[in-house]
Amino acid sequence: MTRILAIDDEESITQFLKMGLEAEGYEVITASEGMTGIQLAEKWKPAVAIVDIMMPGMDGYEVCRSLKKYTNCQVILLSAKGEVTDRVTGLNAGADDYMVKPFSFEELIARVQARLRNTPQYEEQPTGLFSIDDEQKQITYQGEALTLTRTEYKLLRYFIQHKNKVLSKEAILNAVWGYDYYGNDNVVEAYIKTLRQKLQDPEHQVIQTLRGFGYKLDVTE
After folding, report:
1. What is d(CA 52, CA 186) in angstroms, rounded to the nearest whole number?
2. Is residue 176 within 8 Å of residue 117, measured between CB atoms?
3. pTM
């Protein structure tokens, strides 16, 4: 059973999430403040954490940074703040998604499912020329460790998890930058360019461009 952690100082919210998510077949544990939530995550290893931003003491941004540093869970931030700057702050803190209160439970379920599709599957991590150490946030290529930024790591990991499949720019944006990304979609091309440089792929044989369709990581040997 997939584990989900809900962190919110409002008991009505955590109980609502617990009841609804358990009805969908998930195993749910709740916390009313950030530090307890982080401790539960380290011990309980949830696949997804749903975290409120406006909490006393440690706020959701700080909780998110700690969760992304010490666990492998996907983080969905909840907030009554819906301005672009608030969303950007949340995504820059490491969040994988951002939802504004009040929210549709059906939409929350859809976003949880989307995040689960991007959760690393350890038994599938060794992939031919690549291997992923998600604990250390490290990817090796042909036996050599790559020096990657956080976003480069997320992007390359997404490619590896979908090796030999054509991925549209929209799918990449949603998976790596989140559904609420409002920036220019040329960011995908810019990051792929830097990955190609680090993979020593000037001929675009590893990360291939398929005009009109998207990109593909070719790991055939």
Report:
1. 31
2. no
3. 0.57
- Is the preceding peptide bond at 46 cis, omega within 30 degrees of 0? no
Please answer whether residues 17 and 5 qualify as being in contact, where contact means their C-beta atoms are separated by less than 8 angstroms. no
- Bridge partners of 78? 52, 99
User: Residue 4 half-sphere exposure, CB side, CA atoms within 13 Å?
Assistant: 26
* Per-residue pLDDT tens digits for 84-109: 888 888 888 899 999 988 888 999 99
Please state, in angstroms and as integers, the Cα–Cα distance from residue 25 to each residue in 5, 14, 21, 22, 150, following that order.
Answer: 14, 16, 7, 5, 32
- Locate 30 and state its tokens: 């709740």
Copy the structure tokens of residue 119. 């959760």
User: 3-state class of 191 per DSSP?
Assistant: helix
Query: Is residue 198 very low, low, confident or very high in pLDDT (cuts 50, 70, 90)?
Result: very high
Q: What is the chain's mean pLDDT, rounded?
A: 87
